[in-house]
Amino acid sequence: MPAYRPPRIALSEITPEGCFLSRRAFLATTAGGLLVAGAGARAAQAAALVAPKGKYTVDEDLTPEGDVTGYNNFYEFGTGKADPAANAEAFKTTPWTVKVDGLVAKPREFGLEELLALPLEERVYRMRCVEAWSMVIPWTGFPLAALLDKVEPLGNAKYVSFDTVVRPEEMPGQSGFFQPLPWPYREGLRLDEARHPLTILSVGVYGKTLPNQNGAPIRLVVPWKYGFKGIKSIVRISLTETPPPSTWNLSAPNEYGFYANVNPAVDHPRWSQATENRIGGGGFFGANRRDTLPFNGYADDVAGLYAGMDLKANF
Amino acid sequence: MPALPKRFHSASVWALYGLGLCPALAAFYLGATGRLPGNPVKEFEHLLGIWALRFLIATLAITPIRDIFGINWLRYRRALGLLSFYYVVMHFLAYFLLDQVLNIPAIIADIARRPFITIGMAGLVMLIPLALTSNNWSIRRFGNRWSRLHKLAYVIAAAGALHFAMSVKVVGPEQATYLALVTLLLCWRLARKPYLKRKRQAGARPIRAPETEKAAG
């Protein structure tokens, strides 16, 4: 933990990009204006977002920030690992609202400011990608259950469905001739999984608001499931009675299940899931091939959710 | 097209070997010193595989380039073919040593169970006899059988492009490009004989070249 903590900037205090851009046009006409505008842009990209440490942490080295924010799967910005960081700069995350509806007593839209006012905490989680690589990431966020409580799910609500924003004009992967997936990107959880204390909506990483490539301004983190369940840039959360469709499952049902719990005993059809490559090991020889743990090391917390279930069939 | 003076031919082939190995050397240096971002082993493995495929395609492009444009780069074909072999071997070694870190049971399971790895391994195995016979002695020794054996290069290129396309989560423009190039080259094999025949007839009619040649011979 760094000794110096920059003051926390409320998101409401960050200049909206529209205002910022028009200010920049004005500043650009004045001497030295560009320098000022440049400093403003950096602040808006990654505002400090410091939250107290929660009880969940991992006794492993953190993945360097440059890898966490530079090595991403976010197909809305391209399929290469470096594409999101390269292509997400024009993505506008203010203003932002999340619509919560479906089988709830009080459906409504939440402004991002309201979500940021929920009690935030920092949690260090393992992140295991279905592609057999992994990271250790300090997220800032709040339990999804805290948001669900606000809308009061009805008795027949069994599942929670999530949608990513669709903005072809700002997301190059959503426009043009080649589009890797049907949009919007969708994910889902069982309601008990969604309400589990480990399941969070993250609004920050490494003590700053989420960079666009990591799913700004708000994304799901479910640390015992493969990374693709962690849907990014969420605009809608809906409670349903039947299992919601999920993008990768629709795209290749034999490769990506609805549950997608990290499981070293169930291989992906095209590669083994028994081991994983820890990102950020520094070159070939520092690279860390390590055993993958059942439920990504969170079995004590979550195995009970799946008692009696055949995890090979429900992969 | 100005032809390269003959005295530079041999040097240009050696330069091709040298240049051709540069991507692997540069990537190895960056990876070994921790300067490849993200997942360095995968980056390196992937780079070696892509270059193997590029050299395979370049090898097979020599004949159509000569047929269609009349440019004879036959002297580079052996170097290109051997470079593709070297890259495939390095690609495998990166997987074996750096990625799987000598975990032989895992590798055997991969080869047996994952079709894209099975296909890739088959490509590597087929390349071995071609690499071993890429010398003048073998060409003289095996004659017609040498040409037939080396037609395997088409099967290997197809295996390589398929291996690449099947390895990714979503087939994108990059994989589609390699598949298309290999398909084109395979189609050329089928179209080649009729094309050359027509070209010969068209060229022959006004000057009656074949007859003249025969008469001279």
TrEMBL record, chain A:
Gene3D superfamilies listed in its UniProt record = Oxidoreductase, molybdopterin-binding domain
Which free-text remark accompanies the cofactor?
A: Binds 1 Mo-molybdopterin (Mo-MPT) cofactor per subunit.
Functional summary from the UniProt entry: Part of the MsrPQ system that repairs oxidized periplasmic proteins containing methionine sulfoxide residues (Met-O), using respiratory chain electrons. Thus protects these proteins from oxidative-stress damage caused by reactive species of oxygen and chlorine generated by the host defense mechanisms. MsrPQ is essential for the maintenance of envelope integrity under bleach stress, rescuing a wide series of structurally unrelated periplasmic proteins from methionine oxidation.
Classification lineage: Bacteria, Pseudomonadati, Pseudomonadota, Alphaproteobacteria, Hyphomicrobiales
Name of the protein:
Protein-methionine-sulfoxide reductase catalytic subunit MsrP
What cofactors does this protein use?
Mo-molybdopterin
Q: Subunit comment for this entry?
A: Heterodimer of a catalytic subunit (MsrP) and a heme-binding subunit (MsrQ).
| Occurrences of domain Oxidoreductase molybdopterin-binding (ranges) | 92-248
Family to which this protein belongs? Belongs to the MsrP family.
Keywords assigned: Metal-binding, Molybdenum, Oxidoreductase, Periplasm, Signal
Q: What is its EC number?
A: 1.8.5.-
- Sites binding Mo-molybdopterin sit at N72, Y75, E76, C129, T164, N214, R219, G230, I231, K232
Provide the GO biological process annotations. protein repair
For this protein, the record's HAMAP family field holds: MsrP (MF_01206)
Q: Which reactions are catalysed by this chain?
A: L-methionyl-[protein] + a quinone + H2O = L-methionyl-(R)-S-oxide-[protein] + a quinol; L-methionyl-[protein] + a quinone + H2O = L-methionyl-(S)-S-oxide-[protein] + a quinol
Q: Does the keyword Endoplasmic reticulum apply?
A: no
Post-translational modifications reported in the UniProt record: Predicted to be exported by the Tat system. The position of the signal peptide cleavage has not been experimentally proven.
Q: What Gene Ontology molecular-function terms does this entry list?
A: metal ion binding; molybdopterin cofactor binding; oxidoreductase activity, acting on a sulfur group of donors, quinone or similar compound as acceptor
